[in-house]
Design brief:
Order of helices and strands: HEEEHEEEEHEHEEEH
Strand content: 25-35%
Number of strands: 11
Structural class: alpha/beta
């Protein structure tokens, strides 16, 4: 709370807490960043650098790959898009640089990469998996991503955002689906910003 008050006063922002090695198994360290307005529909790129999977030995948590996320976010900003999609060495989708991902396949199934692939066990991801019986974990290969009807980014701060394009190519039919609207309603009670 003190970090947030110091950084934002009465305004809004994000405070990220991390455990650093030290006494008693880890010392909490916090950093802050402003929370800007987000578009209701996102554009994404596939980030060229490969996600290390569970090489850091802490499935479900950001650990060794923190620099990877920063580089991917920077690449997205340089490309003028909202998210960078991270894949493993075999091209299987793992997560976004700042979100977890759900993909709607041609069969209409709502899937997210498993934590065992190296995906962060994000709060919003866990809420969707607990509250949406149709949602499940499954590997998402490059061909699955290319044929996706919809990609939805989820994050506890941002809610759910539909991805309209990946690398400039439209995802699915390009419009909102029942899934993006349903996940948005589940994760946010206020309407998305314009």
């Amino acid at each position: 709370m003190a970090i947030g008050r110091e950084a934002f006063g009465d305004g809004a922002g994000v405070v990220r807490l991390a455990l650093r090695e030290g006494a008693a198994g880890g010392l909490p360290v916090g950093d802050s960043r402003a929370l800007g307005r987000e578009p209701s529909v996102w554009r994404a790129i596939r980030f060229a650098e490969r996600h290390p999977g569970t090489a850091g030995g802490a499935p479900g948590a950001k650990r060794e790959a923190v620099g990877l996320y920063a580089r991917a976010r920077e690449a997205a900003a340089d490309a003028g898009v909202d998210e960078a999609l991270l894949a493993d060495g075999d091209g299987r989708l793992v997560e976004g640089a700042r979100t977890n991902l759900f993909v709607v396949g041609r069969d209409g199934a709502l899937v997210t990469p498993p934590v065992s692939s190296g995906a962060v066990a994000g709060v919003a991801r866990e809420i969707v998996l607990e509250q949406v019986p149709e949602a499940r974990e499954a590997e998402i290969g490059p061909e699955d991503l290319a044929r996706a009807l919809e990609i939805v980014c989820v994050n506890a701060v941002r809610g759910a955002c539909r991805v309209a394009t990946v690398d400039g190519l439209p995802v699915g039919a390009g419009g909102a689906s029942a899934w993006s609207e349903r996940l948005h309603a589940l994760l946010r009670s206020d309407p998305p910003p314009p």
